[in-house]
Fold these 2 entries.
Entry 1:
Amino acid sequence: MTAPLSCVHPARPSRSRRLAALLLGGLLGVLLLVWQPAPARAAAGEAPVDPATLARAVDQMEQLDRLRISLASTLEGSSEEPTLDTMRQVCRPVGQRAVAIGRENGWTVRQVASRYRNPDHAPAGAQETGVIDLFSRHPEVTGLWEPATADQGAGVNYYRRIDVQASCLACHGSRESRPAFVKERYADDRAFDFKPGDLRGMYAVFIPELQEALQQAG
Ligand code: HEC
């Protein structure tokens, strides 16, 4: 099997705990996962989470990202300033869908941004800050896996980048051009002055190992 338009995470010996680099296929959604288990697990022949679950997480985040892009594109060409109502039709449904995907699968699904609008979306720890930094330095990396942190317990994290499109600028463009409802409701807003192609943030999916075990038992 070949992977067109694939991107490979550059080798980073300093981060030897990284579980795997993800190769994301192109427009047709072809994807190829390269799984590099931790040495102990490789010896035991087990992966911490079923590869089918990993593939489902990738697929769900692709769908979530396409949802936002298609909702934002409905505003394109409109000369009206986005109101609370139109906002409800773009990033809020995406946030709700993220929570629903988590609930349906037993995962935790969040949006994370260092230049956030909603402070709930600030990076939660060193791993998230490190991955955002990596995505911003390596635009060719679409997504990657990390082992769960000590706080999370056993499991894996999947991160998927969120890029700025022209259609996002109606609400994430210059500071002055932000819609009135954004200026009013988000006092600590940092999510402006973006350009198309900039990194906007990332989706963060935590897949606990326990949930996997329960699912396989049941
Ligand atoms: C109609 C206005 C509007 C448009 C258009 C819009 N956003 Fe947002 N965006 C918002 C608002 C408002 C929030 C904060 C939502 C909340 O409170 O959770 C937000 C939040 C986000 C977040 C969550 C992280 C954070 O900063 O809180 C991401 C990621 C995001 N937007 C990306 C995008 C992308 C990518 C596009 C274009 C494809 C886009 N947005 C288009 C208004 C918009």
Entry 2:
Amino acid sequence: MHQVIEGQLTLDHMACHVPHRFDVPENTGTLRLDFSFSPRHPGVGNIAHQLSISVYGPDGARGTRHNNADQSPVISRSWASPGYLPGEIEAGEWVVEIDAHRILPPGNVTYRIEIACAAEDCEEPAVDSIPNPLRAPKRKGAGWYTGDLHGHTFHSDGKFSPADYLETAHQRGYDFVALTDHNTVSAVPHVRRLAGNGITVIDGVELTTFHGHALVLGLEGWIDWRVKDGTTMSEIARAVLDRGGLYVIAHPKSEGHPFCTGCRWAFSDMLPGPARHVEVWNRSWTERNHNEDAVQMFYHWLNAGYRMVATSGTDTHRSAPADHRLAANRVLADDNTPEAILNALRRGNSYVTSGPDLMLRAVAVDGSTAEMGDVVAPGPVRLTCGCQGGKAGADLTNLSLRLIRQGKEVQRWHVRLEQGLQTTVNAVAEPGNWFALELRDRTEGLHGLSNPVLVGEEGEPWH
Ligand SMILES: [Zn+2]
Ligand SMILES: [Zn+2]
């Protein structure tokens, strides 16, 4: 059975989902779709139209391959193209949706979708080999763990296979890694299988909407990312949090349309709305100065009483040049399991760093202790501030550790990381105050940022 859908998109379709229904007969084993459009490019500038398809069966979403040149998926009972989910090909009405991320003037894009249904199943091609079968088993038990919360494979617009992705995480020395392909979770089982007991894999997806990106971590399965028909991003975020997932606003100050359409956070109901996690360090610090704006937004939300947690993400799509200053999340967790890592991130017992260790701890007069992310009682507090170590090869001269209170620097120490630094500061803290540490170089470039110690009582004034 062969079906053809044709149509035209105008500028008015930008940031819209354009659905088309099609029929799948009984006893179908394989579905082949082929989406093409013309022109690919508006004819001026170096930025093309950006259109992908998503496929939905009667029983739910079957995948997408966002921002990938290949828009000709095969979906069968036992195998599917990258980005798509294999499984029963249910008879009935299916939907193929064009996700019109970017249509540039003058618009007028014609498209064609061919759909072929065949009875036979599709053979599974050879699977990825395990990148390093001799990898040691991962560390376990309570302690500090380092890892990444953001990255992509060729199941969306990355260059990496699941095996390449894991190998890169391994080379970077990560204890845990999340995989967050755009609007699809099809690669997660592959990554988990390849990881074995060598590295903790956290379920993830990047909700890649037309008006901002968010990471959902720790939930199995696909999340409907479409903000439409009266659904708001806040509702999606609340549903994720209610199900026990972590919701992270990704690269909020990234450049937007047309360079990176949809990348800049533009949900006015979510500043921060129900979100309590924000990615302040996306990709390389040197490459992308929008990260500084994200740090300042994080501070602004803390000053407004939101109990925010800062995270980082390498947003890996391919090999990164050696001079890129990426950050990892260092997390104080009860164990090296997805649940324990996510619990620590939920509390904010973590910091972002290009390599050096940071230490921030507050002790109140009654002897109670607060780690970064925790709440300490108002009154006199003794803050222990420290840092040490760093990435080999990086220029770590002329670094300074800075104590931040309410977003403002209140003290600064020059640091020689090989020797390390540990010092104490006495302060009288009032409810609503917060303290954090920054590690910066002489050009103000960031090398580490702690999550804050918050002053107040649990729930007050922090929300
Ligand atoms: Zn993104
Ligand atoms: Zn991303």
